[in-house]
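[step 3/7] fold_predict: job queued, chain A
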Amino acid sequence: MNKIPKKICVNVSRIQQIFSPDPSAVRSEQIQKQKQAIYRHRNQLLSGYLEHDIQNSDIERNLHGKPFLTAFPQLQFNHSHSRQHYALASSFELLDVGVDVEDLDRKVRFDALAQHAFHPNELQYWQDLEHDADYWFRVWTTKEAVLKASGLGIRLSLNELDTRMHPNAQGGICHHPQIGHFAYQNFRLSDCMLTVAWRAAPSCAGFQFPQIHIIQH
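[step 4/7] structure written:
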C-alpha cells in the first residue's frame, strides 16, 4: 500500500519585496533594518500558515540555537536569505527541516570555496564535471540546508559532510555520525538555487520523498 507523502511548504520571496534600503543610512544600520524586516516577513508567513498571530516573542531557541515556536513546538521551520531572495520552509510532519537559498549570479570564488568546503568525493565529482556551476550550487546549498536542519550549523565542518550529490540527481540522502541521516531536494528556480533538507530515518520499506510545495511571491 502506498503511503501518503508527507509535506513541506516553502515560501520564496524577493528581498526587494521585504526591504527597501535607505541610500543615506550607514551599512550597519541597513543590515539591522533588513534583519528586522526579514523577521517581520517570517512572522507574517508563519501567522498565515498557522492562522495565529506570531511575534518575535513567540519564538525561542533550543540548545543548538535553532528557533522554534513555543505555542507550536510540533511545527518545524527554518529560513534562509541571500542578497536577492528569502525562503521559509515549514512542516508539521517532518523532523528537523532546513533550507538554503543562493543567487545564481552571486560572485563566487568557486574553486577556493570548493577546496575549503567540499568533501573529497564532492570535489572529485566537481572537477570531473569541469567545474560545473550548477553542481557547485547544489552541493553548497545542500551542505548549508542539512547542517541548519541538524541544528549543528558551523559546529560541523562543511568538508566533513559528504552530501553524496550525484551529478544527474536533484536530491538524495547523506549521513554523518554526528548528525545522522538527512534527505534533501534541490530546486533550480529562475535565478536562484533552493535546497530543502529534513531528517530521514533509514527503513527496509524504502525512502519516499515528501511533497514539497513551493510558493513564489
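[step 5/7] annotate
The first strand starts at residue 7 and ends at 14.
The radius of gyration is 18 Å.
exit 0
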